[in-house]
């Protein structure tokens, strides 16, 4: 494998990860070594692993309430769930991912980093998976599905008032406009586009935020009374 420069501005990385920066460095090393070898990350991503992946995801922590129960849907190589768990030890994080070889890698990396993070193999729309994680405060997803499909998967997992944080690229505004009606029908409020990490990552991370404002047809456990 090509040698990869894992340099990151220590002041920036320390601002995001604090005393867990050594663990974040170790995670970045996993990504560019076994993560690339085992097909979880494309080889072209290795040189930009900090900016485009680790930091880009970790800055979403700005939007997370203290102690939140967070479910990262379609976690792949743990993005954004692992950077968020590293940046914010107060969170309770679960990573949901259907593919066995990705789940195996996630299990190994979470164990190596000593993180208190649950890895759940399954599809998020599977009723058994849904039962395990419903009532969450936050659902995150990056590069998993269009907004209307994500809303259909995430809103039933959230407590009323909980929020879907979908990390998106240039398509964010178009997706919000296109899917507004579907999101409302699914129990979501008006989607908002928020930028995270200004001054830390360039460009800042674009996040589509959707709050669950009412039931989704099948109420979450905490709302079933
Ligand atoms: C393009 S990858 C993105 C991975 C990671 N979120 C990232 O940003 O690098 C999409 C991931 O979503 C997962 N996925 C696809 N459908 C899913 C579903 N129904 N439930 C949970 N995960 C799913 C795939 O297995 C894959 O790991």
What composes the largest sheet? 7 strands, mixed
DSSP summary: helix tally: 8
User: What percent strand?
Assistant: 15-25%
Characterize the overall form: globular
CATH class category: Alpha Beta
Instruction: Spell out which ligands are present.
Output: S-adenosylmethionine
Distance, first to last CA: 55 Å
Adjacency order of strands in the biggest sheet = 3-2-1-4-5-7-6
Report the uncertain regions.
Answer: none
Instruction: Indicate the structural class.
Output: alpha/beta
In angstroms, what is the radius of gyration? 17 Å
Total strand segments: 7
Helix content: 25-40%
Give the rounded overall mean pLDDT. 93
Multimer state: single chain
CATH homologous superfamily caption: Vaccinia Virus protein VP39
- Total discrete domains: 1
CATH architecture term: 3-Layer(aba) Sandwich
- Topology as H/E string? HHHEHEHEHEHEHEE
Q: What name does the CATH topology carry?
A: Rossmann fold
């Amino acid at each position: 494998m090509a040698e990869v420069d894992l340099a990151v501005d220590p002041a920036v990385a320390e601002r995001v990860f604090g005393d867990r920066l050594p663990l974040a460095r170790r995670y970045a090393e996993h990504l560019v070594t076994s993560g690339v070898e085992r097909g979880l990350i494309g080889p072209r991503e290795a040189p930009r692993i900090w900016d485009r992946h680790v930091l880009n995801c970790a800055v979403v922590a700005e939007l997370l309430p203290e102690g939140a129960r967070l479910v990262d849907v379609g976690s792949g190589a743990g993005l954004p769930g692992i950077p968020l768990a590293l940046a914010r030890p107060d969170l309770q994080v679960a990573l949901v991912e259907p593919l066995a070889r990705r789940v195996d890698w996630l299990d190994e990396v979470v164990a190596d980093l000593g993180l208190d993070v649950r890895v759940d193999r399954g599809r998020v729309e599977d009723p058994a998976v849904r039962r395990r994680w419903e009532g969450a405060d936050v659902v995150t997803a990056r590069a998993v599905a269009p907004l209307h499909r994500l809303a259909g998967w995430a809103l039933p997992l959230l407590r009323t008032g909980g929020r879907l944080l979908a990390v998106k690229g240039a398509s964010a505004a178009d997706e919000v406009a296109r899917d507004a009606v579907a999101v409302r029908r699914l129990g979501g409020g008006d989607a908002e586009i928020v930028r995270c990490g200004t001054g830390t990552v360039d460009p800042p991370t674009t996040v589509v935020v959707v709050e669950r404002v009412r039931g989704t047809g099948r109420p979450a456990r905490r709302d079933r009374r």
